[in-house]
Amino acid sequence: MSQSVVMETSLDTFPVRRGKVRDIYDLGDQLLLVSTDRISAFDWVLPTGIPDKGRVLTQCSAFWFDFLKESNHMLTCDIEAMDLPSAINFDPLVGRSMLVRKTEVVPIECVVRGYLSGSGWKEYQQNGSVCGVRLPEGLVESDQLDEPIFTPATKEESGHDINISFERMAEIVGMDVAEELRNRSLEIYKRGAAYSRERGIIIADTKFEWGRIDDELILIDEALTPDSSRFWPADQYKPGRGQASFDKQFVRDWLLESGWDKESTPPALPDAVVSGTREKYIESFEQLTGQTFVWK
């Protein structure tokens, strides 16, 4: 079940930037985003991929872009509708590729938190606030907040993004842009979280990325996926502890128990972890969208 994290697509004639899990090909005034099956944890790309993970993320984003009706960068996910050279091997691209408009990327991760978890929980324990947002006393891990909060972060090329205050965000991008992105990010999260809750999934927090075309700010990258969000099964939710999840926590837990020091090359994932993680991604997609994942 384990597989290589390298994917041959015959697109090497185009400029490419390879992120931790996504390859981005520059087609001129458009970009081709290819979500690979690579998986990262603790700032490392693991040597073992998760089959179909990239397809789940791409199809999940496509669902949300259509559902939210928010101005975004997606043009099509249909390979046959893309003007790509005929010599390219299309098979590895099907289901995991999105043709998008090129934008001027806003250098901020727009994070929205509806529940107290992750780095937000750690910061709250230290000083009772998250990114400068003061929270009520006495909250416990995974508590739902009275209202979602906006906690921006810088976009870092490597390592963890760095949480910043809204005031610092305004210094970087300007107050008008900061206020618009805060308001729109909160509104999108609330709509997405309300819908997903009806489908039995809690979106505890998420991050959005935005870009500019002329004077318009539009949603880019991915949207409300299990890689950009914490997805929790609603029927297992219980405040006061960490939660079961639909994301790569299955992988993180195995790595923590493996004895890996987080400083050296990560170990290969065993088949059971690979298949279990794949099943979690597919389960979240099917439960959220009501669609059947067709690449089984």
For the secondary structure, the number of strands is 16
Order of helices and strands: EEEEEHEEEEHEEEEHHEEEHH
Structure class: alpha+beta
Number of domains: 2
Stretches with pLDDT under 50, minimum 5 residues: 1-6
For the residues shown, what is the average pLDDT? 92
Helical region count?
6
Distance between the termini: 13 Å
Report on this model:
By secondary structure, the protein is α+β, with helices and mostly antiparallel strands. The chain folds into two domains: 1-102, Phosphorylase Kinase, domain 1, CATH 3.30.200; 104-236, D-amino Acid Aminotransferase, Chain A, domain 1 (2-Layer Sandwich), CATH 3.30.470.20. 29% of the residues lie in helices and 24% in strands. The strands form four sheets. Strands 8, 9, 12, 13, 14, 15 and 16 form a seven-stranded antiparallel beta sheet that branches. A five-stranded antiparallel beta sheet has the order 1-2-3-7-6. Strand 10 (129-130) and strand 11 form a beta hairpin. The radius of gyration is 19 Å and the shape is globular.
List keywords for this structure.
five-stranded antiparallel sheet, Phosphorylase Kinase, domain 1, D-amino Acid Aminotransferase, Chain A, domain 1, single chain, alpha+beta, 2 domains, 296 residues
Could you write a compact summary of the structure shown?
With 296 residues, the chain is α+β, with helices and mostly antiparallel strands. The protein is 29% helix and 24% strand. It folds into two domains: 1-102, Phosphorylase Kinase, domain 1; 104-236, ATP-grasp fold, B domain (D-amino Acid Aminotransferase, Chain A, domain 1).
